[in-house]
Amino acid sequence: MAAISLKTAQKHLKEWLKAEEMVTNAQSYTIGSRTLTYANLSEIRKSIDYWESKVTKLENAQKSRGRNRIKRVVPRDL
Protein backbone atom coordinates (compact mmCIF):
# COMPACT_ATOMS: atom_id res chain seq x y z
CA MET A 1 0.00 0.00 0.00
CA ALA A 2 1.26 3.47 -0.87
CA ALA A 3 2.08 5.89 1.90
CA ILE A 4 0.17 8.65 0.07
CA SER A 5 -3.22 7.97 -1.45
CA LEU A 6 -4.36 9.32 -4.81
CA LYS A 7 -6.99 11.53 -3.15
CA THR A 8 -4.39 13.06 -0.84
CA ALA A 9 -1.99 13.74 -3.70
CA GLN A 10 -4.77 15.35 -5.76
CA LYS A 11 -5.76 17.51 -2.79
CA HIS A 12 -2.17 18.71 -2.29
CA LEU A 13 -1.81 19.45 -6.01
CA LYS A 14 -5.03 21.46 -5.97
CA GLU A 15 -3.84 23.49 -2.96
CA TRP A 16 -0.45 24.22 -4.53
CA LEU A 17 -2.17 25.37 -7.73
CA LYS A 18 -4.32 27.72 -5.62
CA ALA A 19 -1.19 29.01 -3.90
CA GLU A 20 0.46 29.69 -7.25
CA GLU A 21 -2.59 31.64 -8.39
CA MET A 22 -2.59 33.75 -5.23
CA VAL A 23 1.13 34.49 -5.46
CA THR A 24 0.97 35.44 -9.13
CA ASN A 25 -1.83 37.91 -8.39
CA ALA A 26 -0.03 39.61 -5.50
CA GLN A 27 3.31 38.23 -4.39
CA SER A 28 4.06 41.00 -1.90
CA TYR A 29 2.71 44.24 -0.55
CA THR A 30 4.10 47.26 1.25
CA ILE A 31 2.68 49.24 4.16
CA GLY A 32 4.74 52.28 4.94
CA SER A 33 8.37 51.18 5.04
CA ARG A 34 7.59 47.47 5.68
CA THR A 35 7.25 44.88 2.92
CA LEU A 36 5.63 41.45 3.27
CA THR A 37 6.38 38.72 0.73
CA TYR A 38 3.97 35.78 0.63
CA ALA A 39 6.10 33.04 -0.84
CA ASN A 40 8.75 32.18 -3.37
CA LEU A 41 7.12 31.32 -6.70
CA SER A 42 9.91 28.94 -7.71
CA GLU A 43 9.37 26.89 -4.52
CA ILE A 44 5.66 26.66 -5.28
CA ARG A 45 6.36 25.50 -8.84
CA LYS A 46 8.75 22.81 -7.56
CA SER A 47 6.00 21.55 -5.27
CA ILE A 48 3.49 21.56 -8.13
CA ASP A 49 5.88 19.49 -10.27
CA TYR A 50 6.37 17.05 -7.38
CA TRP A 51 2.64 16.58 -6.76
CA GLU A 52 1.84 16.31 -10.48
CA SER A 53 4.34 13.48 -10.83
CA LYS A 54 3.00 11.83 -7.67
CA VAL A 55 -0.61 12.02 -8.96
CA THR A 56 0.44 10.64 -12.35
CA LYS A 57 2.35 7.77 -10.74
CA LEU A 58 -0.57 6.88 -8.46
CA GLU A 59 -3.10 7.07 -11.31
CA ASN A 60 -0.94 4.74 -13.42
CA ALA A 61 -0.61 2.32 -10.51
CA GLN A 62 -4.37 2.38 -10.06
CA LYS A 63 -4.94 1.66 -13.78
CA SER A 64 -2.68 -1.38 -13.69
CA ARG A 65 -4.14 -2.39 -10.30
CA GLY A 66 -0.75 -2.08 -8.64
CA ARG A 67 0.85 -4.80 -10.73
CA ASN A 68 3.87 -4.49 -12.93
CA ARG A 69 3.55 -6.31 -16.20
CA ILE A 70 6.55 -8.47 -17.00
CA LYS A 71 7.02 -10.60 -20.06
CA ARG A 72 9.80 -13.08 -20.47
CA VAL A 73 11.45 -13.46 -23.84
CA VAL A 74 13.85 -16.23 -24.76
CA PRO A 75 15.89 -15.48 -27.86
CA ARG A 76 16.21 -18.46 -30.16
CA ASP A 77 18.32 -19.00 -33.22
CA LEU A 78 16.21 -20.97 -35.67
Please tag this protein with its features:
two-stranded antiparallel ribbon, 2 strands, 55% helix, elongated, single chain, 2 helices, mainly alpha, 78 residues
Oligomer: single chain
The succession of helices and strands, N to C, reads HEEH
The major β-sheet equals:
2 strands, antiparallel
- What sort of overall outline do the alpha carbons produce when their principal axes are compared? elongated
Which sequence of strands runs across the widest sheet?
1-2
End-to-end distance? 44 Å
Class from secondary-structure proportions: mainly alpha
Number-wise, the strands total: 2
Number of helices: 2
Strand content: 5-15%
The averaged pLDDT comes out at 84
Low-confidence stretches: none
Instruction: Give me the Rg, rounded.
Output: 21 Å
Helix content: 55-70%
Strand and helix map with partners:
Elements: H1 6-25, E1 28-31, E2 34-37, H2 41-63
Antiparallel strand pairs: 1-2
Short description:
With 78 residues, this protein is mainly alpha-helical. It has helices at 6-25, 41-63; strands spanning 28-31, 34-37. It has two helices and two strands, in the order αββα.
